[in-house]
Amino acid sequence: MFVLRGVVVTMADDGRVHEDGAVYVGDDGLIAAVTPADPVPAGFDNAPRAKTTGLIYPGLIDLHNHLLYNSLPLWTEPSRLEPWDSHEQWGDADTYGSQISAPARLLGASAGRALLRYVETRTIVGGTTSVQGNPRGATPPDGELVRNIDSEKFGTKEDFIRVRTLVAHDLAELEPYVTALGQRKGLIFHVSEGTDPKLSSEFKLIKDAHLLAPQFIGIHGTALGTTAMGQLAAKKATLVWSPFSNLWLYGATADVATAKDKTVRLCLGSDWAPSGTKNVLWELKVADLWNKAQPAPVFTDEELCRMVTANPGDALGAIWPHPVGRIVKGAVADLAVMSRRHSDEYRNLVLATERNVQLVVVGGRPTYGTTELMSRTGSPATARVRVGRRSCRIDLGDPAVSWDSVLAELETVRADPVKAAKRVRRTLDSFGSDNFDQPGAPFVLLPDLPARDPDGSVAGPSSPPVPVDIPPLQRLAPDRAWFDAVDRNPFHGGLLSGLRDYAQ
């Protein structure tokens, strides 16, 4: 329980901004009141109070990611001289196994808890409080840093969402999802990713299975045309836009101008490290670059900001028991405080980078932020993490765990992948490849994308990982090396090179 004061950007439907407001965060992890709109609630007389000079936003929501791979660098296939046409192509690339699939599998199986803390930290330092793309595997024994959309249960035994990353090829494969939809479950599907017009058949199969509904969340949709956008809108379904990854791999992105014209609910997702941004705060900047590159801007700054707050909040509101994505009474207390960089509150969020993130609150728990704000909100977090030139505090879920120990565990695997792979194989021999939920089993992360070994052979999701060189761990925030890597890929036509300017 605490009170956070400052400029409150509610992202409510009326666009209300409280220049001198306060957010009252209850012990139940929900927002008890937002003043001056609501009366001051009882019981907060002795609650910690924190005054910030920044702006208080809803925590950002990343509606598309694959967390297992987020310690890896940006990837390009050296032999590929032109953009890919389809998501079915790059998984067969010569270097996919050695540079993406195998390193991620080895880290996830041999140092799963450290890897999850690393990739979630990379997410939260950008102001993200909810992220889609939970790596398959056991639930961490000491909790997660951010709200994981795939597995969030809100203290119940309810499984709210079904996720499918692989494309279905016939209606029979979709029958379990038809059943789930009838039970009011949410559906998150990759669909029509690429530029080949034939990919529209993936969307047609989903439509023919009658899966389009307010609970349906489609990822990418880069091959979808006007008719499909209209069908998404008619069913009040959602489309997740990942412009960096689309431009990086395919040299094109979804027809979001038509999507807006058809009133499709649009959200943003940062995808994964090999072809995505560091976090959804940077994906917001990619959307801004794309928007400015159009003959006339398609979106206002407020509309862009809603793609990482209110819009995904509405998509999840059809599934979850509590509102999210807005700062209103009764909503989940997921908050992000950003320092002032621009006079307009929406432009301020578009321009914000990791150095502007002052505090991140997840479910009422101050999880990351400056030492001052973490202390004033009553956080017991003692771990310190350096992001660029800043040193901040983070609650890693266990007071005995430090950020240095997280990095050290991952570096141990990097230093001797042969030893790590042997250790994992012994574990598999003891517990079996699919029994990691039994007592005493180690915590592992398993891939949610096609798995290949360095020789190109197909590996099962829970196959023993093989020894492979693991790239150096990437910095949490973009640095010169990352921007230089962006510049070297010709597929985006230079548009993504504009990201460097936001870091100035």
The beta-strand count equals: 21
Number of domains: 1
* Radius of gyration computed on alpha carbons: 22 Å
CATH fold-level assignment: TIM Barrel
Distance from first to last alpha carbon:
37 Å
CATH class: Alpha Beta
**Cross-sheet strand order for the largest sheet:** 3-2-1-4-14-15-16-18-17
Our count of helices gives: 16
| Percent of residues in helices | 25-40%
Unreliable stretches, pLDDT < 50, 5 or more residues?
A: none
Question: DSSP strand (E) fraction?
Answer: 15-25%
CATH superfamily: Metal-dependent hydrolases
Rounded average pLDDT: 94
Instruction: Give the overall form.
Output: globular
Keywords:
504 residues; 5-stranded parallel β-sheet; alpha/beta; 21 strands; 9-stranded mixed β-sheet; TIM Barrel; globular
Structure explained in plain terms:
By secondary structure, this protein is α/β, with parallel strands linked by helices. It has a single domain, classed as Alpha-Beta Barrel (TIM Barrel), CATH 3.20.20. It has 16 helices and 21 strands. The chain has a nine-stranded mixed β-sheet with strand order 3-2-1-4-14-15-16-18-17. Helix 2 packs across helix 3. The mean pLDDT is 94.
